[in-house]
Amino acid sequence: MMKVLNLKKSYGQGDARFEVLKGINLEILKGETLALIGKSGSGKSTLLSLLAGLDRPDSGEIMVQDKSITSMSESELTYFRAHHMGIVFQQFHLVSTLNALENVLLPLELLKRENALKEAQELLESVGLGHRTHHLPSEMSGGECQRVAIARALAIKPSILFADEPSGNLDEETGDKVMELLFNMVSTTGTTLVLVTHDQDLARKCSRIIHLEHGSLL
Amino acid sequence: MIFKFFFLKEMKKFPFFFLLLFFTLFLGTMGLMGISIITGQVHEKLQSNANQLLTSDIAVSARRDLFDTELKSLEEVFKNHPHKTYKIIDIYSMITHLRAKASRLVEIRATQEGFPFYGELKTSEGAFQSDKLYISKDLADLWQVETHDELQIGDITMKVSGVVLDDSSMGLRGFSLAPRIYMPEARLVETGLLKPGATGSFTYHFKLENFSAAKPQDIKKEIYAVIKDSAIRITLPEDSSEQTGRVINVLTNFMALSALIGLILSLVGVFYLYQSHLLARLKDLCLLNLHGLTKNKIILGIIGQFAFVFSLVMALEFFVIVPLYRQFAPELSSVLGLELSRDVNLAASLSQIPYLFALSLFILVPLLLGLMRTSMGLQLKASKLSLGRFRFWDFLPFIVSLWLFSCYISHSFKTGNLFFFALMLVFFMSTLFVRASQWLLKKIIKGKGLLLPTIENGIALRGLARSGHKLTLSFLSLAIGSTLISLILQLDTMISKEFTLDSEKPSLFIFDIQEEQMDPLLEHAKKEGVNLSYVTPMIRARLEKVNDKQFVRKKRSYNFRDREDDEERRFRSNSLNLTYRDYLTGTERIISGEPFPEGGAPDDRLPYVSLENRWAQRMDIQIGDKLTFDVQGVEFEAMVRNIKEIKWTSFYPNFFVTIEPGMIDAAPKTFLAVLPSGPAETKLNFQRTTVERFPNISFIDVEELIGKLSSLFVRARGAIEIISWLSLIVGMVILYGLSHDQVYRRYYDLALMKTLGFSALRLRLNLIYEFGALFFSAMSMGLFLGWMIAQVIGREAFKLSPSVDWGRLFYPALFLTVLCLATILLSSWRAVKARPRELLSDS
User: Fold this and answer.
1) B positions 535-574 inside 8 Å of A (CB)
2) ipTM strictly over 0.95?
3) CATH assignment of the domain containing A188
4) Which of A40, A47, A96, A112 is most worth mutating to test chain B (most B CB atoms within 10 A of its CB)?
5) b vs e for B677-704, b when ≥16 Cβ sit within 10 Å of the residue's Cβ?
6) How sure is the predictor about B423, in pLDDT bands with cuts at 50, 70 and 90?
7) What pLDDT, on a 0 to 100 scale, did the predictor assign at position B560?
């Protein structure tokens, strides 16, 4: 599904240059749920941003379904991401001027899917928000916003879903519910999941856990 | 603590914000400060030269010579005040340069021994002597007149004794209607020009021996007590300088309004800048509050910070403007026709600073009150920070101070109110338009997918429909900016058009035609191959009674005087010129009442009278009122039938009062006429032969006059254009700030859309659709409203004809929209190109 070969990334300039990832090698299997854990500053979000094509590595290669995303142009990468990847952020990141339904509709319409409206509606119902379709993000709770974000990320039926601390901004009870929903949907659809988290209990729900420390896998 | 946080840390941490704030305020206030320096210099110059302008301590004048009884009354008043005196007669007449065989209208100033008491006239031949003939330098240049050349003045011929090189009694050289010549008063009688009805003024000047500042005021009161005729005018030096300053005031007031536009634009920018800055700093402010700094102290800190930046702005302005003024003082003197000093008196400008500061600070009141209403503890827990909501009342201090300031700097309640209400109109129209558009857009997008017809467009429409008050504020700022820009452009067009010669304007305006000269003149014209038109009788009269009550000159008791008061004072003399006719000229329009019936006034009713609207308003006369006039001792009554509007800049014979024919046709009168436009040679020939045959008849060459006004306007426009460009630059800076702010607010939306699969092109298209619609509608509305307001202000305040310049409506809208879109695209360049890893939790 995904292969990572000797991935390196650093920030800053000159003496202040800081190596965040020091040659990561990793293979992620199809349908696998992988938890990426580590302390703050260990480089886990940086690794996620590289895997999701949100940033470019200094060196190394990332292969997704036998295609190297590191050698893709910006527009090719955008196209690839739109068709194969879903991302759930800690801060939800819904488009503020679109309501719940339209936020889910957005990636479907981008791919010009037929019955996009019906699909979006069904997805919202599947995350328990069938009654909130016309509400704007500012009119919903954090848990509801994150459920919309999960529905949006899964709308295109991605082959791989990246989740960056998806319950980090929610209270424990709501966080648990949201994560339960996420795992259920991933297992139902057979989607590969890469989850970044601090939470050991949450990580244990994944089929594999990898630890990141000072930019290297343990 | 406050000092450390608000002054040192903040300014060090946010240099871009403070730099932008500094330059926004600097550009916005520079125009007003510059104008205040110029007006201060003008007033100082006029005040210090007041005695020289009048040439004496007190002048008593009328448009006729004083009667013996009046002269005796004057003698009585001055009996107790040792003094010297002389008489001056000013009269407009045609003169002929015999060597060049050329004639033209001049202002003849006939003086007596002793002139001038104050100031001096430097001539090419040394000291001025009141028994000789001198001509002004512009006339000498025009005709190439040399000393000892002969001039025909009425019935006599005189030799030129010299050229006046410097005349301290001339207030504004550039604004005079005709060049001036000086001749002995004793010889003026010989010219035969002083016929009844001739246009002139007779002034008795007095120089007091034991002069004290209060004395002239006391004497003025004494004279008014013994001479009741409102046709008699008493002028003190300060009145004289005020009168001279009036012309400059109109110009500087208009420039000040243009500069106020720049200030308002910059204040819109200041509001936006502070809104963004406070939002960005809200978390830190909340933390300060959490640790014990009260809201009051936080707000004090913000005010102190603003005051500090404002002080720096003012300091730099003086460093920039004062040397600039010194550099351009000679050019300014040439534009204004007044020799201005290069040494700047800063008192007038400094006095304006508190008003400017108050107005600038009041724009921040809604933000500060919003901050007061913000629950700072809750903000720290919220996922998204927001300032408290604004209420309409929060803007009241700014609105009221803006209104007062508009009236103050335009020196006119009327112009100030017009300007202010025009801004309010833009405010309400913009709000209404935005709300209506959002309602309509919500209807359109309801229940529909994102493809409308493209996804970029669909998202753009949703952005517009759901942005709430943010969109209103952006729209409002853009609309106000473009309204003001359009207002300047359209007023400029209207004024330019007014001073352009066209086929509808006459070629010559002819006046001082004696009654017995009318028929021979018409015959003469026929012989010369021209037809005189608009031959109109002119009768000097006095308004004695209104509805059988004696008409009295009212005096206002309060100190604040605006331009309308000055106009009213000028209007309120009861002496006037009137005419009789039963038709309207092409330059008159009845605005209320009925036209005169055909056939003249029958014996069984009072004759009707038609009044000019401003004159009627100031005299407080209504339709149906009975007026009693005195024509050379004979009284007659008339009933007001209608109120009319007159286009005075048409250069056709028009009067404040027109009587229905029949009643006063036989009264002593002179005539006015015009020569319609035609070949220049015919005009010159007719003018020359007429002056030879009828020396007392005078001509105003309309083409020459319009040319003179045009060149004056072009010079004045240069000054106004500088101010307008300054406003435009401020507008551009603000628009850039607004565009930048909009992109900043969208930064995360753009990054997010990119992660969802939007290409850079699609993101840009989305921005172009959304902001293009916002900019174009705001610009179009602003430019249209600016045009409308220009028509109203032009008509009400400056008496200009309505006009439309489509080019100046369309191209600025297009230019400003493209400019704003370019700004949006440039501002968003980084956001569109950026790799969106900032969306992740530890970024």
Assistant:
1) none
2) no
3) 3.40.50.300
4) A96
5) bbeeeebeebbbebbeebbbbbbbbbbe
6) confident
7) 47
